[in-house]
Amino acid sequence: MGSADSKLNFRKAVIQLTTKTQPVEATDDAFWDQFWADTATSVQDVFALVPAAEIRAVREESPSNLATLCYKAVEKLVQGAESGCHSEKERQIVLNCSRLLTRVLPYIFEDPDWRGFFWSTVPGAGRGGQAEDDDESARPLAESLLLAVADLLFCPDFTVQSHRRSTVDSAEDIHSLDSCEYIWEAGVGFAHSPQPNYIHDMNRMELLKLLLTCFSEAMYLPPAPDSSSINPWVQFFCSTENRHALPLFTSLLNTVCAYDPVGYGIPYNHLLFSDYREPLVEEAAQVLIVTLDHDSATSASPTVDGTTTGTAMDDADPPGPENLFVNYLSRIHREEDFQFILKGIARLLSNPLLQTYLPNSTKKIQFHQELLVLFWKLCDFNKKFLFFVLKSSDVLDILVPILYFLNDARADQSRVGLMHIGVFILLLLSGERNFGVRLNKPYSVRVPMDIPVFTGTHADLLIVVFHKIITSGHQRLQPLFDCLLTIVVNVSPYLKSLSMVAANKLLHLLEAFSTTWFLFSAAQNHHLVFFLLEVFNNIIQYQFDGNSNLVYAIIRKRSVFHQLANLPTDPPAIHKALQRRRRPPEPLSRAGSQEGASMEGSRPAAPAEPGTLKASLVATPGIDKLTEKSQVSEDGTLRSLDSAPQQSSAEDSPATEEPSQAWREQRRLSSASASGQWNPTSEWVLSWKSKLPLQTIMRLLQVLVPQVEKICIDKGLTDESEILRFLQHGTLVGLLPVPHPILIRKYQANSGTAMWFRTYMWGVIYLRNVDPPVWYDTDVKLFEIQRV
């Protein structure tokens, strides 16, 4: 039967379904089979032939028919899973039902009255109307559907290679089959890489798309502040009820991490061979991050130390979360497994950067946001993995792509979410001493980026990119400034030698943030100055030798520090500073930042194309909620300070009794500041001015400025190199105040970020699934879809 005929028949069935006002009996197989038995429709056909308006009409006008359609489609999947899908006809039925459910489910989820439907048992709806054995008929439809999909994902000759030697052997019994022997790809816990099979990959992909659609009920619930709402679909699928949980988790992880889009290392190879693996890898990455959506702040996560056992999962740890995917992820512990995961993620994240050397030489992947979420989950749930990442300079293979994405997206309103996750990952890494140490490695890779050319280390790269984001990103990035500077503070005690370019960038930021109009125009702006002073103090006290460039820059810009020390606090001066605010807000001035020429081959960061769709995001917690303060002891161990009182850190300043939500709002408005709600007082300025940690820098200037001036007069010098040489050999031993303890602000899990990740992840998945457009134009509640 031709495909044009089958489309016609399928369309006729859909029309009948929408026009029948009488319920159609579940036993009327002749009617229901039209939807899946004789048709060969692609998923795109199903989306075209079942319009949204008609699904909604059936839902409103003949609900029992929609219920029966869903029930019968699930029943067919269950039958396929039980029989093992040996015939081509059975496989076709399974795929057709899978596509139909993918089409219909979002419309079930968008209506609150229908939401419980899949979780109710269907009374007396056994095959042919007879009640079945109590056990199965009592299962909610959702559970039957999920278990059938899990079985079908390990179905020989359908989604995995058959292990039969010959056709004479009886078919592999799908119930006794050990799916751990059928893992899709070599990697964690599995050594054998099966022959690639295009048909199997396509079938897996369709079933994973259905699974993702089942999980997407989360999109139809508004963001809950406590984020405790457990997704019942994910909860059941990742529970011990699913006997394939371990092999499926492993298959998804290995499929993503083993993927090489380059095509066997031969440039331009992808132009010769179509890569059917990529759609499967994308789907696998999306399903994986959704199953790992788990609020680590509210659950006990397994501890770091456990003895190593022979298996891929570490059994010595206490039982982890109920969600088996999170549990397995947190228990991976073998070095070779960590190496495989890290190399895979780094390879894929670097892929868009390769494009810039040899344009179009490799296939450009689009799922870097899903990979960043996956990397975040790995570091958040598996501390051993985090330590492994930081143990060698491999972490830089993650850092460079993240800095590339941050720099590239800084002007694009539709990529605010990407900016946030990149910064969150760097904040998490910066809480570990090793990250700061690794940054000292010279940066020689020349990825064309729209930043000034410099010679230096990865620390210089990080500072130059952060400076670019702060001075030339768009307005909506302001809430990230605290995070960006916290990362610099965290790594600063370990930075052995900043380049002149990076040193000048840091001083330019101080100059911009310490103008009176900026300091007085919002309740928390002065925190940025505190962070920068902390950076300078850490480097002067702990890395003075080797940082003559920074010391020289501080001496050259000494007036900025003197102005801060003499900041006016009287009402007329405050009023005068704020008068500048009445004019249109100025972006941070770039004057004096000495922008060098950008790197060769780079393109400027572009704003979003008008009309680009973006998903809204919930607000992120303030830096005080995101991090907890720890003090580094003499022996390098960390002691949490959040219970103990601390002195003179930025957050201490009594920033008027405003809840943090209000000040974020306040800060957003303050630059436009027609609002005029924020009125700084003399008392307020004095309260934090007295805490500015200027002693170390003032002492440095007091000692070095006269010496530098003397050299200049004696030798008639205008030449920097001579002064730098003097500073390189200078010492301040015994002249500076006693070094302060190093303060690190470590990321701490909290429900605010858990909720942020949930909205961000689902927004990405919504926007990336356009063919077919699974959720497009349905009434999602978790976020809003907006046009830039």
Automatic annotation (TrEMBL):
Any one cellular component term from GO for this entry?
Golgi trans cisterna
Which region ranges are annotated with the description Disordered? Answer: 297-316, 572-610, 628-678
Domain of life of the native organism: Eukaryota
Q: Where is the composition biased (Polar residues)?
A: 669-678
Membrane-spanning segments: none
Q: Which InterPro entries match?
A: Hid-1/Ecm30
The record's annotation in PANTHER family points to:
PROTEIN HID1 (PTHR21575)
Please give the name of this protein: Protein HID1 isoform X1
Species assigned in the record: Odocoileus virginianus
Gene that this polypeptide is encoded by = HID1
